[in-house]
């Protein structure tokens, strides 16, 4: 791989990481203030109000992260058709690291124990895994299947 190609992959990953982080902050911030619907609290009355509220927040957070990861996956698959998974995975890992870094401060880390720690870990995993997964869905299994009439694609 020539250095110019590697530099274009690195610049693309950095730009996708900035875009992904910005989209996550904007869309997840909006989803966090979406009020709970009445049927949500009555759907599972045995789990309690706190668990239902946390489940609502996690459902909204997951939906928002899917919405934020979709343009990054599409751009990565379009701009780098042969190396999309690597570029998008690097961008997602960089954005997740940047988003998770403040939790390791000495004044915040002791506050994360029990349930809050699990929510933080699950959100970090979602943030790092969703863009490569969506990129794989967009570009991987359909275009590389060996069952095509003309054989596998050579792109």
Write the layout of secondary structure elements.
Blueprint: H1 3-32, H2 38-43, H3 49-79, H4 84-100, H5 115-139
Helix pairs in contact: 1-3, 1-4, 3-4, 3-5, 4-5
Explain the overall architecture.
The chain has 155 residues and is mostly helical. It has one domain. 70% of the residues lie in helices and 0% in strands. The chain has helices at 3-32, 38-43, 49-79, 84-100, 115-139. Helix 1 (3-32) runs antiparallel to helix 3 (49-79), helix 3 runs antiparallel to helix 4 (84-100) and helix 3 (49-79) packs parallel to helix 5.
Structural class: mainly alpha
Please give the radius of gyration in angstroms.
19 Å
Approximate helicity band: over 70%
Shape: globular
Q: Main beta sheet: strand number and arrangement?
A: none
Whole-number count of domains: 1
Terminal Cα span? 17 Å
Number of strands: 0
Strand content: under 5%
N-to-C order of helices and strands: HHHHH
Low-confidence stretches: none
């Amino acid at each position: 791989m020539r250095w110019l190609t590697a530099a274009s992959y690195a610049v693309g990953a950095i730009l996708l990481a900035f875009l992904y982080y910005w989209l996550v902050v904007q869309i997840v911030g909006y989803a966090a203030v979406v009020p709970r619907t009445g049927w949500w609290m009555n759907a599972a009355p045995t789990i309690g109000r706190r668990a239902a509220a946390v489940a609502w927040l996690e459902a909204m957070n997951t939906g928002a992260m899917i919405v934020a990861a979709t343009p990054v996956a599409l751009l990565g698959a379009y701009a780098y058709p042969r190396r999309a998974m690597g570029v998008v995975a690097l961008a997602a890992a960089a954005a997740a690291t940047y988003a998770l870094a403040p939790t390791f401060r000495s004044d915040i880390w002791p506050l994360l124990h029990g349930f809050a720690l699990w929510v933080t870990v699950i959100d970090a995993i979602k943030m790092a895994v969703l863009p490569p997964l969506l990129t794989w869905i967009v570009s991987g299994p359909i275009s590389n299947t060996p069952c095509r009439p003309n054989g596998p694609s050579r792109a």
